[in-house]
Structure formats: structure tokens, C-alpha cells
Amino acid sequence: VSLLLVVICGASGGIGQPLSLLLKQTDLISHLALFDVVNAPGVAADLSHIDTRSTVSGHGKEDMDEAMRDAHTVVIPAGVPRKPGMTRDDLFNINAGIIRDLAEGVAKNCPDAFVLVISNPVNSTVPIVCEVLKQRGVFNPKKIFGISTLDSVRSSRFVYELDNSIDPQTTRVTVIGGHSGVTIVPVISHIPGQRFTKDQLDVLTHRIQYGGDEVVKAKDGAGSATLSMAYAGAHFTKTILEATVAGKTGLVESTFVNLTADADSTAAFRATTLLDYFAQDVEFGREGVSKILPLPALTAYEQVLLDAAISELRVDVTKGATFAIDNPKV
Ligand code: ADP
User: Fold this and answer.
1) If you take atom 5 of ligand 1, which residue's CA is the nearest one?
2) Taking the model in full, what pTM does it have?
3) Which DSSP state fits 261?
4) Do the Cβ atoms of 92 and 68 come closer than 8 Å?
């Protein structure tokens, strides 16, 4: 097996640390490069004592190029939290700039890498990565993913709380649309044996769409969902490695992608919705996206959710793409 390098950008953060811990446990990775503007060498030294085969290195502010060189996969949870006095737009612009710079790093150091984006808002940060890679002439839509796995994880768990007869670990819920608020459309109707009332569906849907808020509130100023996000992020990263490195076939997850990754099967959808990005079930292969599966048949209830998701998603995607086009790295 050749040296398989995975880089975590933002590895010292609330998501980055537990994500790095979970990824230290897989033998699919031979080297974990932890990049962050603070504390990366410390986190790397700590993890390097764990008795799995992989090696770990830490890279500070000046060492992004070194961390990313020849990476197979780049996972991005980097960002800054909202501070008092900062508007949502201020926060968006700062984090969008961070993502743009990391995408420039990918273009320069590992243009063939798989890029897995966790930093929110995913509906906008994935278009930023894609636009930067397009500008640099190295865009391959089959290799860029927004990790929306936490929406499926929450769906399985919350459905299980209402119905203990499902196995939450093996019952994967398809979640389509995007990765925030009303753009999250859980396709509950496809879970075998589910017969929820409209009231139950309302509660379930709201809880899945706004699961992040539940955690922010409970943490009471100390942050947002980090551990469950790290769990979901590690799960998705391992799926990508199993498909692309180990050659495992038939793996499917819901993930936020550029639809031109499977241009033929998404042509009609793109033409009617005018959307180039969407979360949907994707089957993975050696090159990343192997197939974007057809949209599942939706109930009337789910179709209403999808219509709301699509209009919101257009705004989010445009915001990201416009940022990247109007603010190239100087
Ligand atoms: P979360 O809870 O979403 O993980 P944090 O603020 O705890 O949020 O973590 C984000 C991490 O991203 C921090 O460790 C921060 O230092 C890091 N970070 C910020 N800017 C950059 C950047 N330009 N490159 C890499 N990492 C960054």
C-alpha cells in the first residue's frame, strides 16, 4: 500500500480534535497531517502516542503547503466562531475567506485530492471550494463533498427514539437538499416500517433540521455540535477511503455535491431547479462519485419540504459562488 496522507485543516478545534482522534484509529490512513493556525503540534504529539500504525504530524500557520503536499484527502472543519458584535455577514466573510485560502492550498499542493468540507455554511462553502478549483483549472466535481452525514445520523437516532424496533446503526436515512435549517429534507418515508402521524413528522423534521440549535442551547455559550459532528465526519471520511483506496463497491451516503459529478443523471433536475449543488444519495467508486442516485419518490409532505429547500438553497449556493468570484485571493 502506498503512503496514504490525510490532512485535517482546523485540527485543533472543537470538531478537529475528536475527528483527528477517530481517524487515528483507522489503518486505512498511513499519515495524518494536522494543520491549524494554533496548537497543531501539541494535538499531533498527543495523538502520536496512540498505538495504531499511522504517523501524525502537526503544522502551524506558516506550514499549510507542507501539511497538504501530496495529500490523498483533505478534511476541512476550519473556521472562527462568532464573537460579540460580529454580524452573520462578518462571520460569513471571514470563514469564506478561510475556505477560499484552503482551497487555494489544495490547488497548489494536492490538486487531485478528495476535499471533504465540514465548515459551515456547507451550502455556500462547497461552492467556494469548487469555484476556486475551477479558477485554478483543477476542478473535478467527483472529488469535492460537503459532509452532511450528521443529518442522517440525527435522523436515525431521532427515529429510533420514537421506534425502538429499528437498528439506528444500520438504518441509514437519506437526507436530501442542503445542510442547514429548511434546506435539510429527511426522507423518513423510505425507512422500512415507518408510519408516523403528521404531528410526529412535524416534530421529527424540525428536530432534524434544527438539531444544531438544540446543542448550542444546551452548551450554553460553550460552542456548537462538535462530538456528534466529528463522529459523522469520521464516518464519511472512512467511507470515502474505503471506496477510493480499498476499492469497496456499493457504498452509499447522502452528501452535498456539485451535480455535474454525474452530469447525465442530474441534467433534468438541474434544468428544472436551476441548481448545480444538492445533497443526495451518492454511490462511491475509486474516483469519488460513481453515481448520483435518482431522487427517491417523495410523499406530499416531503415534496413541500423539498420545494422550500430548493428556493433557500439557490440563495446559499449563489452566495458562496459569488464570494469566490468577487474575492479572489490576492
Ligand atoms: P468548531 O467547533 O466548528 O470545530 P472551532 O472554532 O473550535 O470550531 O475550531 C475551528 C478551528 O479552525 C480552530 O482550531 C481554529 O484555530 C482553526 N482555524 C481558523 N482559521 C484557520 C485557517 N485559516 N487554517 C486552518 N485552521 C484554521
Assistant:
1) 13
2) 0.98
3) G
4) no
